[in-house]
Amino acid sequence: MSQAIHTIQLAGTDQSFSCAENDTLLRAALRSGIAFPYECNVGSCGNCKFELLEGVMASCWPEAPGLSDKDRARNRGLGCQSRPTGPLQIKLRTSDKYAPQFPPVRTAAKFISSRVITHDLSEFSFQTELPLPFLCGQYALIQMAGIEGPRAYSMSNVGMFNGETQAGNLIEFQVRRVPDGKGSAHLFDHLKPGDHVEIDGPYGMAYLRENIERDVLCIAGGSGLAPMVSIARGAFLSPQMTQRKLHFFYGARALQDVCGLAMLETLPHWSERGTYQAVVSGASETDNLPSDFMRGFAHDAVAQTFGERLQQMEIYFAGPALMGQSLLKTLIDLKVPMDQVHFDQFY
Description:
CATH superfamily of the largest domain: Nucleotide-binding domain of ferredoxin-NADP reductase (FNR) module
Helix content: 10-25%
Structural class: alpha/beta
Number of helices: 8
Distance between the termini: 33 Å
């Protein structure tokens, strides 16, 4: 059944965009090239707030934590959780840095296969009906049958670089099984080859900057492996980055969680340009860790290894929220310029 489409006017500007009733204001705006600020895309961070001036809209998640009671009293909404039920006028402060290089695409996709990475982390491969160009490090939303709301997962394969697409219609995600997580349980336990999902993307600002003449540092934890592996793959395949070194840190709770090196070692000239460091936070002194592993937390290991040299690196990270917060504080303390630090907030 076709969905009604409504016009959304940005107050005080000559900008407007069309939004179907089954789409959100944020995603429809990005599809139209509007630089709508956002980050998590799932209602938690609050970066996509706007003010409703005219019209009526519906909320996908009325209790979304990204919106306070004060925001609701002031008629504010979250772009990623708001759907139009008629024409709207909204007040929004756009920012050029959010202008999409590739407008997000909604497309059906067929599940091809999965492969095990660790005891709770697997890679899932999909073939999309429509091309979905993306930059290394970006993410997409997957809507699965019977699961309320989409789930955000980062691509692990190589997207666009040097002006050319590398993935074709293949999309790969590395997903960790979350205890009591309905989305990951569906992927791990119920999805069969040939089943269809809807994929909507790309999204995210923590993508590979090919034209930066600095060495690259990637720091990953958990399923944050996916975007960091995508960035590493892109960096080693990009003709613009042949002189850049790449350092990869993976923070794990236990030895059984450590992963990533096998994927990186297949990259051309890895032994010449790349280094890998595993950091295990939950290991006791009696645990028999490999001699080249570090004990402790990823942010401490990075600071210990590089110190003020971090100021000369382009830094990407993805992983648990606490790891990201600790790492960000460390980088600020070491006076790393924040325009050299790239991450997308997930909750």
